[in-house]
Design brief:
By secondary structure, the protein is α/β, with parallel strands linked by helices. It has 13 helices and 12 strands. 35% of the residues lie in helices and 20% in strands.
């Protein structure tokens, strides 16, 4: 059995689709599972257990210069890589015109089928062309979470029952000083470092800088140190504003997804807004609190449990709400300066 997953973006959506791969592996242990994704997210998928081949598709860049020689060459190379295998199932987990195009281009085995979502679900984008290229469309309940949506679509595509256990299959971190973490030993890491995942591409998902600063003061008082990642200039400026009154807080350099995943896994936990970075924390099963300014946690938030939860507030969560949630998922422990596994740099 050869299966192709088409889920091009975004970061959070890619993470939410990972459990479907783990379900497929359990139902079809010998299956070859390949995945088409945007290049930025390929390093993360190469860490997803069960994904054999990651095929990078840079439609976003190619559309900017569709007639250039470089684009034409890249497109030919992509098609050749995509069509190198003949698939028994091509499953479009995205439901958009761009994913439908990729699914249509993929080569089927003689009895192969293309499978796509047959209807829009609440809070998710959907475009009708995904149905036009499909041999099988799957109708799902309109009110369904992002993780459950991908899992249910794959289960119906291949006729298996969903396992009770949910797993993302995100690989364990590599040791410091090797691989993705090479030259990153200067990062503050360890069992007393809390990551504040403050950034989002949507302004309405952000938490106020003053609230982050107040939370940081409470964490520092408990003996934690703080790390602030960023992915662009705006997030860097926000990180600098948050860190200004927080002695010893470290703004991480801009990291690739594989290095960032390793860094997250080497920390005490993550507090963050609804963003791709927060969803990586969920996939790593870290102690994590996810902040929501409006009621979409049912769709994208972590399943409530002893290590992870979401906090909803209007117009945003209060400091006390977030702190209470953090104490629930990550009870206070004695301060630790460092550990043998993850040495911690002294604050500047």
């Amino acid at each position: 059995m050869k299966i192709l997953i088409v889920k091009l973006s975004s970061l959070g959506d890619v993470v939410h689709a990972m459990p479907a791969v783990q379900d497929l592996r359990q139902a079809w242990p010998q299956a070859q599972i390949d995945w088409v994704v945007e290049p930025a997210f390929a390093p993360l998928l190469r860490r997803c257990s069960g994904v054999q081949r990651v095929i990078a598709c840079d439609l976003r860049r190619w559309r900017r210069a569709p007639l250039s020689a470089a684009t034409r060459q890249a497109w030919r190379e992509f098609r050749a890589e995509l069509q190198a295998e003949a698939y028994d199932r091509v499953i479009d987990l995205q439901g958009l015109s761009k994913s439908a195009l990729v699914a249509w281009l993929a080569r089927l085995a003689p009895a192969g089928r293309r499978v796509a979502l047959g209807n829009r679900t609440n809070g998710s984008s959907y475009e009708v062309p995904t149905r036009w290229v499909a041999d099988q469309v799957v109708q799902l309940p309109p009110h369904i979470g992002a993780v459950a949506r991908s899992r249910a679509l794959c289960a119906q595509a291949l006729g298996y029952l969903l396992p009770e256990k949910l797993s993302f299959g995100l690989a364990a971190p590599v040791p410091l000083g090797s691989g993705a973490m090479e030259n990153k030993a200067e990062l503050m890491l360890g069992p007393k470092v809390v990551v504040l995942a403050h950034g989002s591409s949507r302004a309405d998902k952000l938490w106020p800088v003053a609230a982050w600063q107040a939370l940081g003061q409470r964490l520092l008082a408990q003996g934690y140190t703080l790390a602030l990642p960023h992915g662009n200039e705006a997030e860097l400026q926000q990180a600098q504003a948050i860190a200004r009154p927080l002695a010893g807080a470290q703004i991480w350099p801009r990291l690739g997804l594989d290095a960032l995943t390793d860094a997250f896994a080497a920390c005490a936990g993550v507090i963050g807004v609804d963003s791709g970075l927060s969803h990586i924390a969920v996939a790593l099963d870290l102690p994590h609190v996810q902040l929501y300014n409006f009621d979409t946690a049912w769709r994208t938030g972590p399943a409530p449990g002893p290590r992870q939860c979401s906090v909803l507030g209007t117009p945003q969560p209060t400091l006390d709400q977030v702190w209470q949630a953090w104490e629930t998922v990550c009870p206070a422990v004695r301060p630790v300066v460092g550990s043998a596994a993850f040495p911690v740099a002294a604050p500047a």
